[in-house]
Amino acid sequence: MRTEDVSAGLERGELIKGVLRINPKKYKEAFVPSPDGSADIFLDGIAARNRALNGDVVVVKVLPPEQWKVLYQNSFCFERAYASRQRPVVIIFEQKHSRAASGFLKFLPNKNFAMFSPVDHRIPRVNVPLVDCPADFVSRPGDYENVLFICRITHWPADNNFAEGRLAKTLGQAGEIEPETEGIMTEYDVDFSEFSEEVLNCLPQDLPWSIPAHELSRRRDLRKECVFTIDPATARDLDDALSCKQLSDGNFEVGVHIADVSYFVEEGSVLDQIAGKRATSVYLVQKVIPMLPRLLCEELCSLNPLTDRLTFSVIWKLSPEGKILSEWFGRTVICSCIKMSYDHAQSMIEAPDKHFSAEELPPCSTNHRIHEIKEAILNLHNIAKQLRAQRFESGALQLNQLKLSFSLDKESSMPQGCYVYQYQDSNKLVEEFMLLANMAAAHQIYRTYPELAILRRHPPPQSKMVDDLQEFCDQMGLDIDLNSSRGLHRSLNENLGNDEYAAARREVLTHMCSRAMQMASYFCTGALKDENSFHHYALNVPLYTHFTSPIRRYVDVIVHRLLAASLSELLYLHKLASHCNDRKTASKRVQELSSELFFAVFVKECGPLDSEAMVMGVLDQSFDVLVLRYGVQKRIYCNSLEGLKAVHFRKVGKRPEMTLVWEQADPSKESTQQVYYPKQLSVC
């Protein structure tokens, strides 16, 4: 179909454009979101996708409603009806998938090519020429049965289920952390190469670097103020700092000070181009793939203690209740007096009357007493509690899921243990002021550049999914209000009982509610005409952006530039926002896969692990559980359970129910039965 025909079809509503989502557990099923946010569009079978891969932007043809059919998709573990408008993809509007995959080689006798089978079944099998394979692959194919390779698809004929491609690299043994990690990063198009000499030449060459006198004269000098950082203990890229002092009138001067990355990353430079392409740092379990060279991330931009650093600051005058009385934005210079961990700050919050000695804390500037720092943290904590309460009272929603963390061997980086990360009051303190700074930056740039501001929007959840989830909760006797973000937040925090499994029910329902949510995304205000669509659903605020992490997010660098001066091209900003969305999504998925990989290796090396699990949902031959000790979701397939004699599945009304019949070691005893169903989210 010609480009002009596609454009005309989209305008008439005969064609629909959207991001293709392929079911990872049933790779023959794919969906495109409906523009009105109602039921998804279902694409049945690989041929219907017209060679599009997961994440590609595709255009599909809308058939007359009388040709639609209803598909029942078991999601949220209850029947969810899609108005299925089954049809093929007309064109791939934009290839988002990297067309690279990790997988295994299979020898095919009497063929001049081998078969590459991707680990991700959503990617087709690929014919690769034997010349790409290892020299002894034909004579010793068995040696490579467990070896991971990287393959890139070069062509996929329209009349063939198999694609054509070339082997790019031999990774190593499957199941080992480094080969698996490289495979994940390659598939998600993460640039983990070393920075080129051309890029490094953009950095200051005369080291150690000091702030030029003329730059100091242009900035507000805050080096004598009590400014400090609070970060994870292992953090090396410190891009935000805080300050707080009480004024004579009883109010507070509170500052958020962000590393001035834009000073070092000159717009249009090679360094700027590579940072824009990477768009985000990628945080794996064992390492970080930085957006910027380490000299910037960990040295010149990082707000390291006892060192003069360039910053972009927002400083408020706040009442004790957190009301903003005045606000100032500008470029500044600071000298952080101490690098505190979340645990250090938490210890002060938990023991406000304790006298902390120098030995209990990291090195501290002699210009500021420990008592002064503690008072600042306690004041920030008290204001943060007020801000947080006001946010949730105003309708904000937080769906925090359990985050699995690992302790690693210092030599091998192999997992030695795992635990659920504890989110403390010190984390909440920092979060509240970062949110406040991001909202302030959003209003500032939108007020000044209404057509050029880069903001972050979060649409409300899809109405069909909300209705289905509400129906499910009602059937299960769960008192959940999904009519608004405020109602949902209150339900999750107040209506789930106080027995020993209340927290587990809350975690399971948080997972299920998260599935109904749409993704937040960056956008240029000139590309959306309806200001109501700028709204951020979870935060329940009209304007929001990212300003506080320019070391690891390129959008923040642009926001810093917008705060300092106007940019010119609307189309550039729209494409930039789209690219940053893609890289942020890929980064998040890579981070999740890295955690899954380390957990699998940990279980393999240290398992088996015992933990209670809560049944989230039941299918006919499998059931989904949340492993309570680790916050990990798993699908349990009945045919993989040892000692299982029989499986009986039925529906009681719309509620699925599964009975497992187990063999007894003593034949004289009757078989035992377990009944699983998501009524009150049963425990197994």
Defining key terms:
mitosis, 684 residues, 5-stranded mixed β-barrel, 15 helices, 28% helix, disordered C terminus, manganese, alpha+beta, 27% strand, poly(U) RNA binding, cell cycle, RNA-binding, 7-stranded mixed β-sheet
Beta-strand portion reads 25-35%
Mean pLDDT: 88
Largest sheet: 7 strands, mixed
Low-confidence stretches: 73-85, 566-570, 679-684
Q: What does the secondary structure layout of this molecule look like, with pairings?
A:
Blueprint: H1 3-12, E1 15-19, E2 21-22, E3 29-32, E4 41-44, E5 57-61, E6 69-75, E7 78-84, E8 89-94, E9 100-106, E10 113-118, E11 126-129, E12 147-155, E13 163-173, H2 177-187, H3 197-200, H4 213-217, E14 220-221, E15 227-231, E16 240-246, E17 252-259, H5 261-264, H6 270-278, E18 282-283, E19 288-289, H7 294-300, E20 308-318, E21 324-335, E22 339-341, H8 342-350, H9 370-393, E23 404-408, E24 415-420, H10 425-448, E25 454-457, H11 463-475, H12 485-494, H13 502-516, E26 521-524, H14 554-564, H15 570-606, E27 613-618, E28 622-627, E29 632-637, E30 644-652, E31 655-662, E32 672-676
Parallel strand pairs: 11-13, 14-21, 15-22
Antiparallel strand pairs: 1-5, 2-3, 3-4, 5-8, 6-7, 9-10, 9-12, 10-11, 12-13, 15-16, 16-17, 17-20, 18-19, 20-21, 23-24, 25-26, 27-28, 28-29, 30-31, 31-32
EC number: 3.1.13.-
Keywords: Cell cycle, Cell division, Cytoplasm, Exonuclease, Hydrolase, Magnesium, Manganese, Metal-binding, Mitosis, Nuclease, RNA-binding
Site (Important for catalytic activity): 239
